[in-house]
């Protein structure tokens, strides 16, 4: 789950530039005054995880300007957010279709105006989003190539509009997490430690971006956790969770920050809250499996992956609090669950860790520890 906010950050960097449809036009003015109200509706719907409402808004954007890349990118970003939330690729077909359209139409818009900073921003975030999705599936070569293209396009956006702080969300994420991943190679040419640069860029986006402040906050929380700045992570994640209490994106950050601080009681409460929200997602409207390009069944939307993740932390909190019977109960319930083979494969490491924790917990319960 720690990687989720990174994925969510790249896709939401420009997600909410939604103009109010009034009449068909070729290209949208993303800073038109009329966009503000619908912009906030889009932000709220997405972070509240009201995906049908968000999808309706982005579809209206396409109807307003079918030649503009924005609506297609918004839909791709939304489908990515859903897939991250459910840890399933059930909207993969629609995601690829729309992100590719967004890239092509961004390039066409740039051909019309070589200094169109917003088009470069859309192009860069489309490349970045596709790269991150491919990397998440294990296609690291595609992830690298798309990431480099994203970086180039975002720098071009800032070249033409230096105060386009929304571009710093993607750039900050790239500079920080690329440095984390390549730490072993910092001594080689073309590598190096750019974490501080990334932190400064995403902080700038959080403080000054027009549309991407919440997305930047999400990324900044996980950078703070990576840097062991747990108090800063907790302060920001609690602030954002208070803003979007219906959603889970910032609740993951709150729970993880407490866990890393070894505040077992509060971490336990937050992971239990997450577990309840995840189980409530079983009521999410299921999609027709025949429309799913990956071939997944709608049963894969049962949140099993995330529930395993939550139970791992819940069990560890119980163990650290000396509540070995509770720890044993959570471990046994998790290991005895009827997970699909796909989930078992993807969460093999976590399930092994839960098995080891179960053995330790049983030993302590019997007074052998």
Describe what you observe in this structure.
With 369 residues, this protein is mainly α. The chain is built from 17 helices and no strands. Helix 1 packs antiparallel against helix 4 (70-86) and helix 2 (35-47) runs antiparallel to helix 3.
Helix and strand arrangement:
Elements lengths: L3 H9 L22 H13 L3 H14 L5 H17 L5 H21 L4 H20 L3 H21 L6 H15 L13 H14 L4 H14 L3 H14 L5 H12 L3 H17 L23 H17 L3 H12 L5 H6 L1 H18 L4
Helix pairs in contact: 1-4, 1-10, 2-3, 3-4, 4-5, 4-6, 5-6, 6-7, 7-8, 8-9, 8-10, 9-10, 10-11, 10-12, 11-12, 12-13, 13-14, 14-15, 14-17, 15-17
Order of helices and strands: HHHHHHHHHHHHHHHHH
**Largest sheet report:** none
Instruction: Give me the count of strands.
Output: 0
The averaged pLDDT comes out at 85
Helical coverage, percent range: 55-70%
CATH topology of the largest domain: Serine Threonine Protein Phosphatase 5, Tetratricopeptide repeat
Overall 3D shape:
globular
- Please tell me the total number of domains: 2
CATH architectural label of the largest domain = Alpha Horseshoe
Query: pLDDT below 50 for ≥5 consecutive residues: which ranges?
Result: 5-23, 286-300
**Radius of gyration, CA atoms, in whole angstroms:** 21 Å
Percent range for β-strand residues:
under 5%
Structural class by secondary-structure content: mainly alpha
The CATH class of the largest domain turns out to be Mainly Alpha
Total helical elements:
17
CATH superfamily caption of the largest domain: Tetratricopeptide repeat domain
Distance between the termini: 31 Å
């Amino acid at each position: 789950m720690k990687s989720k906010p990174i994925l969510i950050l790249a896709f939401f960097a420009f997600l909410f530039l939604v103009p109010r449809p009034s009449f068909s036009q070729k290209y949208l003015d993303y800073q038109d005054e009329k966009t503000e109200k619908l912009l906030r509706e889009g932000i709220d719907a997405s972070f509240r995880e009201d995906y049908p409402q968000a999808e309706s808004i982005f579809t209206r954007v396409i109807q307003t300007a079918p030649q503009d890349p924005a609506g297609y990118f918004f839909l791709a970003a939304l489908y990515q957010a859903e897939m991250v939330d459910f840890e399933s690729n059930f909207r993969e077909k629609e995601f690829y279709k729309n992100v590719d359209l967004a890239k092509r139409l961004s390039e066409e818009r740039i051909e019309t105006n070589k200094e169109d900073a917003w088009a470069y921003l859309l192009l860069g975030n489309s490349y970045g989003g596709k790269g991150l999705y491919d990397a998440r599936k294990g296609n690291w070569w595609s992830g690298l190539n798309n990431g480099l293209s994203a970086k180039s396009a975002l720098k071009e956006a800032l070249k033409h509009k230096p105060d386009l702080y929304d571009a710093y969300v993607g750039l900050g994420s790239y500079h920080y997490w690329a440095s984390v991943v390549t730490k072993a190679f910092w001594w080689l040419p073309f590598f190096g430690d750019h974490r501080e640069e990334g932190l400064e860029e995403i902080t700038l986006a959080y403080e000054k971006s027009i549309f991407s402040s919440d997305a930047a906050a999400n990324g900044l929380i996980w950078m703070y956790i990576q840097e062991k700045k747990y108090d800063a992570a907790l302060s920001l994640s609690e602030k954002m969770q208070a803003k979007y209490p219906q959603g889970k994106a910032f609740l993951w950050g709150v729970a993880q920050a407490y866990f890393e601080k070894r505040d077992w009681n509060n971490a336990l409460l937050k992971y239990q809250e997450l577990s309840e929200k995840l189980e409530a997602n079983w009521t999410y409207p299921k999609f027709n499996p025949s429309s799913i390009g990956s071939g997944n069944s709608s049963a894969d939307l049962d949140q099993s992956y995330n529930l395993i993740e939550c139970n791992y932390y819940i069990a560890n909190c119980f163990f650290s609090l000396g509540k070995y019977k509770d720890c044993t109960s959570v471990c046994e319930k998790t290991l005895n669950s009827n997970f699909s083979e796909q989930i078992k494969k993807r969460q093999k490491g976590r399930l092994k860790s839960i098995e080891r924790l179960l053995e330790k917990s049983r030993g302590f319960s019997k007074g052998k520890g």
